[in-house]
Specification:
The strands form two sheets. A seven-stranded parallel β-sheet has the order 1-10-9-6-2-3-5. Helices cover 33% and strands 16% of the residues. The chain contains eight helices and ten strands. The longest helix is centred in the first third of the chain and has 18 residues. The chain is globular and about 55 Å long. It binds fructose -6-phosphate.
């Protein structure tokens, strides 16, 4: 794992955007796995800027989103369909047919989940997966005790996640209880993964994910089993890392490594 600590959210987002741009420059038809929530907003803004000012090209890119709330239509302002359209897709040149987001309104969730997994495989797998992390250590909506081999499925949200996400809704009661989410096993098949985290509220989860045991209680800890994962976090989110000096030492010494 590579741990990169940046002073601000802006710097964190720029480093992540450079990783995405590097992936697209090396493979213009790359498959990206995308997250929603507050954390990747700066990354998406930077990608939009790079598209407009530096011709970063999305014309051959395919995307798969991690998750969607069950019961929210695509037009619902809190749906992840709406979020992705507003914050990224409508500003870049990605073809509509290359965008995949789990459906929150299908009448057959089991069949949809199988189809979603199959589409990822048919597209050659995810080249670069972007992740945030929940304050309970979840990745996508893989809440504590989710199997580390889990696949795309319906998941009941944890109380903590409902509390955390209530800020986007008028009332706590409006937060959906179920979500459709890629599994931990699905995520671990991505060729490269970057997890972003900012703010003090994420410090415990980040420390548990990086330095704690691999456990389904903190599904982000499963990333310790992945061969190419990068954590890019701001200083407050890195606040509980006991080996922080070492991670910064590695970054400082990396340019001269043999
Ligand atoms: C969203 C997702 C979630 C979020 C996590 C953090 O697609 O997969 O795991 O990344 O809940 O959310 P924010 O960024 O809002 O703190």
């Amino acid at each position: 794992m590579e741990i990169i600590v940046k002073e601000t959210v802006e710097e964190m987002s720029k480093v992540a955007a450079r990783v995405v741009a590097h992936t697209l420059n090396a493979k213009p038809n790359a498959v990206l796995g995308l997250a929603t929530g507050s954390t990747p907003l700066g990354l998406y803004q930077e990608l939009v800027r790079m598209h407009k000012e530096e011709n970063l090209d999305f014309s051959q890119v395919t995307t798969f989103n991690l998750d969607e709330y069950v019961g929210l239509t695509q037009k619902h302002p809190q749906s992840y369909h709406y979020f992705m359209h507003e914050n990224l897709f409508k500003h870049i040149n990605i073809p509509k047919q290359n965008i995949y987001i789990p459906s929150g309104t299908t009448d057959n969730y089991a069949a949809f989940c199988n189809w979603y997994e199959q589409r990822i495989r048919e597209c050659g797998g995810v080249d670069l997966q972007i992740l945030g992390i929940g304050s309970d250590g979840h990745i996508a909506f893989n809440e504590p005790t989710s199997s580390l081999g889990s696949r795309t499925r319906i998941k009941t949200l944890a109380r903590q996640t409902i509390e955390d996400n209530a800020r986007f809704f008028d009332t706590r009661e409006q937060v959906p209880i179920y979500a459709i989410t890629m599994g931990v096993g699905t995520i671990l098949e991505a060729h490269k993964i970057i997890l972003l985290a900012n703010g003090e509220k994420k410090a415990d989860a980040v420390a548990a994910a990086i330095e704690g045991p691999v456990t389904s209680m903190i599904t982000a800890s499963a990333l310790q089993l992945h061969k190419d994962t990068m954590f890019i976090v701001d200083r407050p989110a890195a606040g509980k890392l006991t080996m922080l000096d070492y991670y910064e030492w590695i970054q400082a010494k990396m340019p001269n490594a043999p």
